[in-house]
Amino acid sequence: MSIKDKLEKYVIKTCAAQNVSYTNEELQAAYRNATHYLVDMTEVENYNVSEDYFYSPIYHDPKYVKRSFESYKVLYDNNYYSWLYGIGSVAYWAGVLALCSIFHWSKVLFPNFVARCTGPISRAWRATVVIPAALDRNHLGSKYLFGKFDIGLVPTRFESLVILGFYAIELAINVAHIYPISGGNTIRTTRALEIYDLIGIRSGVLAVWIFPLVMLFAGRNNFLISITGINQASFSAYHRWIARAFTILAFIHSWAFMGMEIIYHDVKLAGYAFIALVHFIFGIFCLTGLWLHCWKLRSYHEWEFCAAAIWCFDRFVRIVRCLAFGVPKGNCRIIGEDTIKVILPKPKYWKAFPGAFCYIYFFRPARWWESHPFTIVESDGDEQNIIFYIKVKEGITLYIYNYLMKQPDHSANIRVTVEGPYGRQQPTRKYSKVLLIAGGNGIPGPYTHALDLVSHTLNKQIRLYWTIREWKNLEWFYDELAKLGHYKDKCEVYIYCTRGGDMPNFGSSGCSSEAGSISKTSKEKTIMPMNTQQKISNVEALSYIRFENGRPDLKHILGEEIETAAGSIAVMSCGHPKMCDELRSNVARMTLKSDKRIDYFEENQLW
Ligand SMILES: Cc1cc2nc3c(=O)[nH]c(=O)nc-3n(C[C@H](O)[C@H](O)[C@H](O)COP(=O)(O)OP(=O)(O)OC[C@H]3O[C@@H](n4cnc5c(N)ncnc54)[C@H](O)[C@@H]3O)c2cc1C
């Protein structure tokens, strides 16, 4: 159909909508009549556009009409492509989530098939993409830019590739189909206006499309965690990078429209640009800023609603979770040198799972609004309580520690609530050998997995390796280790002590509540008296454990464990960032060489 035919059809349809009917013949006749009276304005002398009225059809230069047509086409095409690419950027994430879901559910539903996936492609994929850190050994450990600025967590290699892919797509879709029309745009009359308009619309539309993802990936109640098997730490990484992309797009959008305003109004910042500037600078008022911005445009509220709904839903579920748990008094006690043990009565219907964690709110005057994540230790056979082991750091944990230090026996009942349980259970039950490797206060996660495995599976090779700094650190986890001893035929436990020190005081009923002063900076080395290790080995409840001095040689241990594995191997770590990074790197290398299926699971304590 020619453009002329299309135009006729459009006019007939539009007029019909207004109850005015034209036939093709009538239109042709009107056209012929009008062309008969056409006036070329360039030939009318002394014509004043704002004062003179004209009642004749006007002749336009066909070149101008063509440019005009192209100008509108570019404008509407840009809207169309912005939408299309916006959908594309969300579809990219849908694809990533679908891929991760396939990997996750195949491990859960078809463990035997997955265990047989040990061919060179599968090994290379896991060894070079899925398992390693982006830059060999740098995932959890602190990274400094120019040796000074802490740049936080570097995503794993798989996460980095996903993020790089997203940024590459964003870059491409920000510039695709953006071009000035030749001969000059008739709507945006200068080249600068034309480009500002195209870029401003494109970046703005792309920003609103990804905005709901920023909210969705950040929420504690992100239902995608259970569906895709992606853990919260990875979602946090994706959230941060999408949020950065959103900020860049919002900045480009604001800059482009401010540029237009400046050209139109001679450097005067108009209301529109002001709103844009406000929501750029005050990121914290992002939702409100966007709302005002979209209100002015009278569109894109759907994305606002979507993002706001996700945010409100998350807040609502968080409140419901707290209410469901209640606000009991928890017994908080300093135990060992720098650990607080919290025992909380829990409702009967409230269930945790291995590796689950909760956000705890301590209702103390100065910090009641803070909530921090801690791993749940469900005591074997104890249906009434849950336990948390909290390492004293420098914020809320130190505040509670200082409060407890002033209490009799360094113990007090504090009203708390918990929000959770969060996280997801890793499919460790599906592997024939499970290596659980913990460092310091990272023991709760691997321990709960060990307890789950020994009580729910048969014929598995289960190993728990725990590295502590001083023998005294055993005090606070004595009860749990003693409980695991009931399953000593099913699980081998190795404890490494790097500094040695005095004999722990296990007390008559398990642990003593001997408190110590915190000296995190102390570099003093205590020479380990050999008999401390022997004495501990002689404690009956711990006699099933092998105690070693010094740091474990993880590479060597890993090599041996893989060698002696009967089938697929799951390696889980939780501990010091450097230890986890080293382990991750070694697992990646060995995956490439071994013909056994090896998967790596990290339960990191960074947020
Ligand atoms: C899934 C998971 C499970 C965990 N399990 C355990 C466990 O079982 N035992 C254990 O000891 N630790 C665990 N942690 C780590 C624990 O959450 C931190 O050690 C704790 O939050 C430290 O609190 P702090 O205020 O004393 O922190 P510091 O890290 O010393 O913080 C110093 C200051 O920074 C603020 N701050 C710290 N982190 C954040 C943040 N993310 N957002 C905003 N402000 C922040 C603090 O409020 C404080 O003002 C876990 C972490 C995660 C993610």
Automatic annotation (TrEMBL):
<keyword id="KW-0560">Oxidoreductase</keyword>
<dbReference type="Pfam" id="PF08022">
    <property type="entry name" value="FAD_binding_8"/>
</dbReference>
<dbReference type="GO" id="GO:0015677">
    <property type="term" value="P:copper ion import"/>
</dbReference>
<feature type="transmembrane region" description="Helical">
    <location>
        <begin position="270"/>
        <end position="292"/>
    </location>
</feature>
<feature type="domain" description="FAD-binding FR-type">
    <location>
        <begin position="309"/>
        <end position="428"/>
    </location>
</feature>
<dbReference type="InterPro" id="IPR013112">
    <property type="entry name" value="FAD-bd_8"/>
</dbReference>
<dbReference type="GO" id="GO:0006879">
    <property type="term" value="P:intracellular iron ion homeostasis"/>
</dbReference>
<feature type="transmembrane region" description="Helical">
    <location>
        <begin position="161"/>
        <end position="179"/>
    </location>
</feature>
<dbReference type="Pfam" id="PF08030">
    <property type="entry name" value="NAD_binding_6"/>
</dbReference>
<keyword id="KW-0472">Membrane</keyword>
<keyword id="KW-1133">Transmembrane helix</keyword>
<protein>
    <recommendedName>
        <fullName>ferric-chelate reductase (NADPH)</fullName>
        <ecNumber>1.16.1.9</ecNumber>
    </recommendedName>
</protein>
<dbReference type="InterPro" id="IPR017927">
    <property type="entry name" value="FAD-bd_FR_type"/>
</dbReference>
<keyword id="KW-0325">Glycoprotein</keyword>
<keyword id="KW-0408">Iron</keyword>
<keyword id="KW-0249">Electron transport</keyword>
<keyword id="KW-0274">FAD</keyword>
<dbReference type="InterPro" id="IPR017938">
    <property type="entry name" value="Riboflavin_synthase-like_b-brl"/>
</dbReference>
<keyword id="KW-0285">Flavoprotein</keyword>
<keyword id="KW-0812">Transmembrane</keyword>
<dbReference type="InterPro" id="IPR013121">
    <property type="entry name" value="Fe_red_NAD-bd_6"/>
</dbReference>
<dbReference type="GO" id="GO:0005886">
    <property type="term" value="C:plasma membrane"/>
</dbReference>
<keyword id="KW-0349">Heme</keyword>
<feature type="transmembrane region" description="Helical">
    <location>
        <begin position="199"/>
        <end position="220"/>
    </location>
</feature>
<feature type="transmembrane region" description="Helical">
    <location>
        <begin position="83"/>
        <end position="106"/>
    </location>
</feature>
<keyword id="KW-0521">NADP</keyword>
<dbReference type="InterPro" id="IPR051410">
    <property type="entry name" value="Ferric/Cupric_Reductase"/>
</dbReference>
<dbReference type="InterPro" id="IPR039261">
    <property type="entry name" value="FNR_nucleotide-bd"/>
</dbReference>
<keyword id="KW-0479">Metal-binding</keyword>
<dbReference type="GO" id="GO:0052851">
    <property type="term" value="F:ferric-chelate reductase (NADPH) activity"/>
</dbReference>
<dbReference type="GO" id="GO:0006826">
    <property type="term" value="P:iron ion transport"/>
</dbReference>
<keyword id="KW-0813">Transport</keyword>
<keyword id="KW-1003">Cell membrane</keyword>
<feature type="transmembrane region" description="Helical">
    <location>
        <begin position="241"/>
        <end position="264"/>
    </location>
</feature>
<dbReference type="InterPro" id="IPR013130">
    <property type="entry name" value="Fe3_Rdtase_TM_dom"/>
</dbReference>
<dbReference type="Pfam" id="PF01794">
    <property type="entry name" value="Ferric_reduct"/>
</dbReference>
<comment type="similarity">
    <text>Belongs to the ferric reductase (FRE) family.</text>
</comment>
<keyword id="KW-0406">Ion transport</keyword>
